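Please decode residue identities from the backbone states below.
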């Protein structure tokens, strides 16, 4: 669903009703400012991400949030503003808040938000817990101080879950909360292959990570795709609600072994 320009107050109840039909939760009374979307960027900093990839990943989000295309998409919303947060994650106990919930409603607030992201040092940690990132994001949505029409989690990563609870369980909990989960699987060919790398990471994300109304993913296969892919992804997350019904894991015929990362870790430990 797309909201064009400012919306008169008399039509707002109808717009909110249409948003609920599209799968969004109605804002609860007594909360903070209304926003078109509450968007969390959850960024992989596990050791499988090399320094160059981490740098390009961060720069991609900074460039996207300051781009005229994204700022235009924000202005086109019903309220003309979004709430955004950015955190980094690795193992099940390692999530680091970089940008807590912040309103972006124009170039100045976008620059202020991305300046905080840019100022954070690059860091890396062991293991990959997508489920830990999903659980951390779920708590952030529970503590959200704004009233969004939609809640979206944007997860980027270059490997399967190999730490913490099964990723399907964490994904289901967010789907039941009406959160849309989108994916940015990083599938850059390297001269080496790490123990946790898998073929068809995009299929893993499709079957095991993403979900919710209008959920989608964009794969990054070359270093020069970071900026264009992140910009396209955020524009779509800001400007479109999606009309598809929530599809729970129990109703899916998954083609991917969603425990493949955990099995690889166990094999590594006992060999």
């Amino acid at each position: 669903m797309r909201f064009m320009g400012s919306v008169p107050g008399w039509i707002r109840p109808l717009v909110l009703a249409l948003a609920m039909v599209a799968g969004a939760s109605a804002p609860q009374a007594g909360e903070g400012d209304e926003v078109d979307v509450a968007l969390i960027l959850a960024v992989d900093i596990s050791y499988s991400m090399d320094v160059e990839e981490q740098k390009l990943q961060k720069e991609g989000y900074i460039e996207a949030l300051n781009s005229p295309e994204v700022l235009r998409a924000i202005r086109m919303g019903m309220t003309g503003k979004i709430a955004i947060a950015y955190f980094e994650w690795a193992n099940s106990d390692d999530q680091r808040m970089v940008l807590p919930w912040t309103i972006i409603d124009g170039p100045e607030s976008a620059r202020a938000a991305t300046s905080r992201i840019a100022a954070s040092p690059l860091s890396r940690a062991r293991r990959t817990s997508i489920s830990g990132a999903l659980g951390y994001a779920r708590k952030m949505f529970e503590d959200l101080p704004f009233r969004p029409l939609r809640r979206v989690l944007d997860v980027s990563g270059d490997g399967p879950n190999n730490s913490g609870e099964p990723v399907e369980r964490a994904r289901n909990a967010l789907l039941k909360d009406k959160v849309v989960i989108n994916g940015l699987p990083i599938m850059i060919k390297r001269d080496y292959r790490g123990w946790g790398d898998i073929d068809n990471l995009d299929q893993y994300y499709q079957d095991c990570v993403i979900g919710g109304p209008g959920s989608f993913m964009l794969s990054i296969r070359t270093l020069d795709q970071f900026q264009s892919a992140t910009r396209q992804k955020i524009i779509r997350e800001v400007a479109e609600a999606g009309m598809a019904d929530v599809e729970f894991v129990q109703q899916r015929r998954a083609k991917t072994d969603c425990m493949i990362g955990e099995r690889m870790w166990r094999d590594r430990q006992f060999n």
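Observation: The chain is about 40% helix and 15% strand.
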